[in-house]
Amino acid sequence: MSSQALPAQAKQLFHYVFEQASLGIAVEDLEGKLLLANPALCSMLGYPEDELCGMNCSQFANPEDSEDDWVLFQQLRAGVIDKYSLEKRYVRKHGDQFWGRLNVSLLRNGDGESPLVFAFVEDITERKRSEEALRESEERFRLAAQAAKMYAYEWDVPTDKVVRSEEYVNVLGYSYQKKELTRQQILDTIHSDDRTLFAGSVDQLTPQNSTSQISYRMLHPDGPVVWLEKSARGFFDEQGKLLRMIGMVANITERKRAEQAQRESEDKLRLLLDSTAEAIYGIDLEYRCTFCNLACLRALGYERIEEVLGKNMHDLMHHTRADGTLFPVEECRVHRVIRTGKGDHAEEEVLWRTNGTGFPAEYWSYPQLRGEEVVGAVVAFVDITERRLAEAALASVSRRLIEAQEQERSRIARELHDDIGQRLALLAIKLAQLQQNPPNSSELRSRIGELQKQTSGIAADIQSLSHELHSSRLQYLGIASAIRGFCREFGEQQKVEVDCKIHDLPVPLSPDISLCFFRVLQEALHNSSKYSGVRYFEVELWGTPDEIHLTVSDSGAGFDISAAKASRGLGLISMEERLKLLKGTLSIESQLQRGTTIHAHVPFTSGKDFLL
Question: At what angle do helices 422-436 and 442-469 cross, to 10 degrees?
Answer without folding.
Answer: 160
